[in-house]
Each structure stands twice: as C-alpha cells, then as structure tokens.
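Journal club prep — side note

Before the paper discussion, L.F. wants everyone to see what a predicted structure for a comparable chain looks like in token form. Sequence:
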Amino acid sequence: MPTKIRKVVYKIIGNMDKSKILCTTHQMDNFYIQFAKGQIKESGVMNYIQHLVAALMPKKNAIILDVCCGRSMILPLLKYHGNRIKKYIGLDISGENLKEAQTYIDCDFECEWIQANVVNLSKSSQSFKNKRVDFIIYTSSLEHMHPEDGIKSLRECFKVLRKNGLMLLSTPNNYNGGYNTRYKAHIYEWNYEELKRYLKQIGFKIQDGFGVMADSEKDFKGEFLKKYGRRGWKYYQDIKKYIPSIFLTSFIAVPFPKISKEILFLLRK
C-alpha cells in the first residue's frame, strides 16, 4: 500500500481537505506580549496558567521534553519558577518556530533544539535512546495534526518517557468535532472520552483530568450545582462581582473536564 503523503501548512484556508493535511504550524498567541499590551484574552490566560503549571511540576535535575514547542514560551517560567531542571529539549516540525525559540531567553540550564516530526520522536536525537525523559509538556498541539499522526505522536511520547515519568497533555474538547473544528489552525479536535480511550490503550495511567477553559455559564451550571450545591453557586456569583470573566473561565472549568471547552490530562507511564 503506498505511503500517505500529507502536507504541512500554516493554517487551514478555504476548502482545504483536512484529511490530507499532516499538520499546521500556526502558533498560539504570545501571551506575554498580549498581557503587556493589555490585549488579554481567555485563551491567553488559559495558556499562561497551563504553562506555569507545567513549569512547576518537574523535579530538580529533571530532563524535560517540550513537544511541538513553537517559540518555547515555557522557558521564562522554567527559568524563574522551575525547580532547577537539568535540561530542556524543544522539538518542533518548523525550523522558523525553533529559530524564534532559541532567541527567546537565556537559560541557566542546558537546552537542545530538534527539528523533527513528533511521530519520529524516538529516532530524532540521541537524547531519547535510553528513555531518560522525566517530564513531557504537550500543550495545545495535538489538535494541529492529522488524528493518525496524533495517535502516533502519543505512542512516541510514551516510548521516550522513563518509567513513572509524567506527561502534561492539553487539547480542545469538542464533541461535535473531529474535522469540524472551532479554529482554522486546527485539523482535528478530540473529545474527552475519545482521547481518554486512546491514552489508556497506549499504556498511560491517567493521574488526573482538568478543565482548563469553560464554555458558556449555562453549559456548566447544572454540573456545578450537582457538585457544590447552591452555596457553592452563590460563592461563584460573589467572585464574579470582582474577577473578570476572562480569568474566571479558566478557573471555573477545573473540576469539569468532560464539559469544558479545553481539557488537560496529567499522565504517568
């Protein structure tokens, strides 16, 4: 059977057939610049929080792999909030993305940059020969690739991760999804149950699951009342009086991954 050849594009334009696209290289907005300019968006708050959470997790002297790293926006957070990691490895299919990443910030830990397709991860560097990666950051990238390659990428991550190592994986949660994506930069958007099933098949142990961005209030009110009751809902309403909704959408989603717009899994090998 002939090998399927798929294209790498910046983002989906017009009537492109997403099933014939390998991946898109469009990056998430630079939330540091957005915040500095006052252009704060829900997605920027979500991405800042998940990058900070990822930076705080690895232990001292850990070797960290940032899959589909883009401009490596986690680096400042690893430098100023991390626990003295040993090495950061940034992997991306786009050479332009990696050039930007390497000029981003001076770090006091070793950095390695690899231009490769994540489906070839285990063969892309000597660093992965002995399965020594302690922690993998895989944020908001799975949706940018063909689903077949997405599954392959997760298998490759499992392969290079050491035993008991952790991976933080985030992606949109779209039950109307598949190729019917919310954003032009996305090829395929998974849903919570679908992704959970594949992760277990690969061998990952799901330590926890979180919502990282809520949709509309009416979509989660029922579940919120079931879990926390009317007193909890009153507390949420009191918080709303002061905290802007731009921030609240990331906080309120946390206990409700199944019904959240964006989700995050904490996985262990």
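L.F.'s comment for the group: The chain has a mean pLDDT of 93. Keep this in mind when we get to the figures.
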